[in-house]
Amino acid sequence: MFFGGKDSYTFMHYDIDLANIFHFHFHGKKEVILFDQDQNDYLYKVPHSLITREDIDFANPDYSKWPALKKAKGYTAHLEHGNILYMPEGYWHYMQYKTPGFSMSLRAMPRKPKNFAQAVYNILIMRHLDNFMRKWKGQKWIDWKNKQAIVRTKKTSLD
Fold this sequence. Notes:
With 159 residues, this protein is α+β, with helices and mostly antiparallel strands. It has one domain: Cupin (Jelly Rolls, Sandwich). α1 crosses α2.
């Protein structure tokens, strides 16, 4: 279950297990922005994590600061009471409550072998590596990852 007050939101992320998700919305209004994994090159993905840069406002992006976002092709859904949204395995999602509300998600394991393997890697290796590096290097690790999100996006989005 997910509960949110007016204007509360999640950072753009995808779920560690790359699950297929049915998202049921029960109360209030919510906006959801979705991107397929094939849009990674434009989203300022933070390495060794499941998020984009946290300082990007996906509800109102600053394209002068984040120019690669102009190339990203995604979907926007507006959910109200009784709506159900299907999010395919591994989809990036940003959710913002426009009014107070609550939702619930039902999840199913990824069906694609590549995504299943990535989910196992995320759970068994990447998460622990990132936690170890956060403890060892602290803010330096986080700053390096945030810088790399920009460097890698600039490099790959120039194509």
